[in-house]
Amino acid sequence: MSSVTFKHVNKSYDNKKLIINNVSLDIKDKEFIVLVGASGCGKSTALRMIAGLEEITAGEILIDDKVVNNVHPKDRDIAFVFQSYALYPHMSVYDNIAFGLKMRKVDKKTIDTKVKEAAEILNLTQYLDRKPKQLSGGQRQRVALGRAIVRNPKVFLMDEPLSNLDAKLRVQMRSEIKKLHKKLQTTFVYVTHDQTEALTMGDRIVVLDKGVVQQVDTPQNIYSKPANTFVAGFIGQMNFIETVVDGDVLKFNNVCVPIPENVKSQISGMDKVTIGIRPENMSGGNIKFAVKVDISEMLGSEQIAYFNIGDEKCSARLNSDFHIGDELILGISPDNMLFFDSEGKNILN
């Protein structure tokens, strides 16, 4: 068992604003869970509290149902992989991977076996005699992972480990870390601000904003059934259009959107509703309207058009060819819309 539990956890500095605000969370044994949010949302602080590198202001953190609030970091049986790799430049790859085991006075034969096993898993065998400066960024990150693997911890904690890598290498390392998780069958808690990493790597995603958990769910549900406008806008792009409720339709800019039957009872008594539409769903529907292109971005086989709907800045991913200043006819459908109340909550959640 390698579960991690937050029970009403708070964190503040000098009794000022809460960095972590009443967070309760159950991370399951062998789960790959991703904490995601903008800079300053508290995700790295949450990770450091699991590790024991930050004290908890209130609440409890449990590892395997044992409260660890006052347990020293070295006694929590976790391994932390940092953004900066934190390798010793004067040591070989072998010695960097072996360092933690040597500090724990593990016998040389066991160290040698564990280091070589980790190197085999991470394709580092041929680099064991090299120094970190002789390695690429991806290889250095694998060394940092190797140092964690040899400890055979209950929980792996990873704080934006791929942010220093170029785009192509990030894609490769995402795949390697997921393979590693499958092979080791250990609990991984992974912090990132990158929504693509969150969607492609996590069994579940925890979306944080200003220290508050906004939603915990599978990548598919986070994307297709966001709890509120913050989640909808942070995980994938979302167009938000404010509409006026008028009988059985929602109106904006002389456009009428029929209200779906499953939404009617939920918005009874409301004057306004915000509809959310992904950029990829801004064409093909039977509700037509014109927009003027302000900015155009080329993405290979697709183009993104940016334009205004009222005061809202919106976008559409299209296969057609167009230029700045062109008028486009878009087509939307209620089937591809989300509906949010005045507080930004998903009406159908």
Report on the structure:
The protein is α+β, with helices and mostly antiparallel strands and 349 residues long. Helix content is 25%, strand content 34%. A 6-stranded mixed sheet has the order 6-7-8-3-9-10, sandwiched between helices. Strands 13-12-11-14-20 form a 5-stranded antiparallel sheet. The chain has a 4-stranded antiparallel sheet with strand order 2-1-4-5, covered by helices on one side. Helix 5 (167-184) links the parallel strand 7 and strand 8 (187-192). The longest helix is centred in the middle third of the chain and has 18 residues, at 167-184. It is elongated. The model has no long low-confidence stretch (mean pLDDT 93).
Looking at this protein, list some descriptive labels:
Rossmann fold, 349 residues, elongated, OB fold (Dihydrolipoamide Acetyltransferase, E2P), alpha+beta
Classify the secondary structure makeup into a structural class: alpha+beta
Order of helices and strands: EEEHEEEHHHEHEHEEHHEEEHEEEEEEE
Specify the CATH class of the largest domain: Alpha Beta
Helical content stands at 25-40%
Rg, alpha carbons? 24 Å
Beta-strand content estimate = 25-35%
Shape: elongated
| Number of helices, where a helix is a run of at least 4 consecutive DSSP H or I residues | 9
Average per-residue pLDDT, rounded, comes to 93
CATH superfamily of the largest domain: P-loop containing nucleotide triphosphate hydrolases
Largest sheet: 6 strands, mixed
Q: How far apart lie the N and C ends?
A: 32 Å
**CATH architectural label of the largest domain:** 3-Layer(aba) Sandwich
How would you classify the quaternary structure? Answer: single chain
CATH fold title of the largest domain: Rossmann fold
Low-confidence stretches: none
**What is the tally of beta strands?**
20
State the strand order across the main sheet.
Answer: 6-7-8-3-9-10
Domain count, please report it: 2
